[in-house]
């Protein structure tokens, strides 16, 4: 939200008060509180008839410093609030040091400095004393607008050349500088400034992050009002934000997700190919069986089959009952599908149509959100007369779960938790929550309710969602997908931008609709999207008005789907290790180039390529003719598809067929390569190959996980005296070592096989 009219004036009707000088400072061992006047106090009379802004500075976890600014502290505190997980070492890590007028709060590598003698301001420093950012003279304020609303405002300075990323899954330009961003959930597709997943957290190219701890609407002006500042404001009496230390993006994300929650580890089977009925198409068991048969006949391994909306009767979403005219024997059908080794996903949402029998049941028991006058909140958008489940009511959550348990007992494995964005504000919640704060937060309790049910019913490590909406902390309940994109190359690129932004907002796993959702893709779009989709953390074929079976787009599409599905399965020992890392550390599976190469300025704006884990570079092709331009960081990289060598740093232009794309392995990487290309959750140590890519690092350690994400085997790879020596721990299974790329004799690969220690001459 903008408050100024240019640099000098305020907008008409806006009155602002800015912290100007410190009038009192109260210091404790691990925190301090400053009381800031909003004008210069020259004499005692200046202290009358004027506000103070209370500024509390503290540390909830090592390397994180919080600032809470308050005007009137007496406002009733109505939830919801983000659940934060303070570090166990927060109290011991934070310390306050005072030297004359200067007060410093230090937590790990981060220091907040406040000088009581100069103009109002705060400076955040790294452990080398370098200024990361700071609050300048107008950076702490409150303002009232013509409608009488009261806003708390904060600004943090932008350095020359500094880039800002994140703020959720945003489809606007990847670098957020110059943008106005409202953190407000909306069902707006992927082609506008609206977003399904709004996260009040941004990451800076200077090696820090900022999290605004407010679940309601947060208005960001990223160099778009005061061009040298990131401004954020809330309509409230208090504003709390955290500066999160790096210095690398990985460390920022690790600290941020430690505070807001690390992602659960999805089951390995969920990394396989998902196929759906699509949305508005006609389908029954015969259709479903024909899809499954068609995939098997064409040797395209399929792992999950998803039933979208019309598994239920029209006008009755959601009542969680199969349409008996279309699916007369759902239990038998699911049993037949599961006999073929398939997992089953079902579409659900939190809306209850009036025609559904659940509407009367929910209204009678108080399970539906109500208006202030006691009426059930309803409208006709999406479903006629639909209401909204009140997940703040524990009994409503159990009621909702009871309907899903029936489906789980029938053989369903997971749910696509659609919607959760269009949440009204003219309502009363069961627990008394503030409707404005609940608008964004609703996604959290909705997805948490379903995820925790799956964990309870299916066991720890077996829960997975396909969720569309999210807020801060939503990364704990994977997987999230990119929403309703068009079937075009433009939408394919905007989907990737959204995924990269989400990954820099703390989300470890992300997917999208292969081929696009709206409309029917041209075969060229579908084939290019197949490669991109099957080189994402999760891979789903889904559409709106047309099927997404590969043969609908020609035999070449079948070949492309097969090629990249088999490739993903071979990569699973590597990918699941990366997934386990995301679970442990919060570093995402699909990584913007900035995450792996923060010291390379060329990576800071790249939004058409990414790293799949630490060692595989993916550059999707966004054109029918196969022309692609991509950047290669320093070193000699190896094409995973052809073995060709590409040297960086530098830009490259290539032309690729539909069965290819730039897929490069990082110099010195060791990829654990599976022998089983038919399933994502096989025995990865059976026939394992360690592919050592030159020029090899002096030493690498590679972990191959088991299906729980725990280490099944650890391999130490050492290169010296013209050999590569690999030593295994945790397994006595036979494995193969393949040394590839530059650094081998004559440029050709060398192999060895055995158990324990394997040595290969190169």
From TrEMBL:
Residues 740-762 are annotated as: Disordered. Keywords: Glycosidase, Hydrolase. It catalyses: Hydrolysis of terminal, non-reducing alpha-D-xylose residues with release of alpha-D-xylose. Residues 743-755 have a biased composition (Gly residues). This is alpha-D-xyloside xylohydrolase. Residues 55-220 form the Glycoside hydrolase family 31 N-terminal domain. Residues 586-671 form the Glycosyl hydrolase family 31 C-terminal domain. Its EC number is 3.2.1.177. It comes from the Bacteria. Residues 263-576 form the Glycoside hydrolase family 31 TIM barrel domain. InterPro entries: Alpha-glycosidase_related (IPR050985), Gal_mutarotase_sf_dom (IPR011013), GH (IPR017853), Glyco_hydro_31_C (IPR048395), Glyco_hydro_31_N_dom (IPR025887), Glyco_hydro_31_TIM (IPR000322), Glyco_hydro_b (IPR013780). GO terms for biological process: carbohydrate metabolic process. Gene3D superfamilies: Glycosidases, glycosyl hydrolase (family 31), Golgi alpha-mannosidase II.
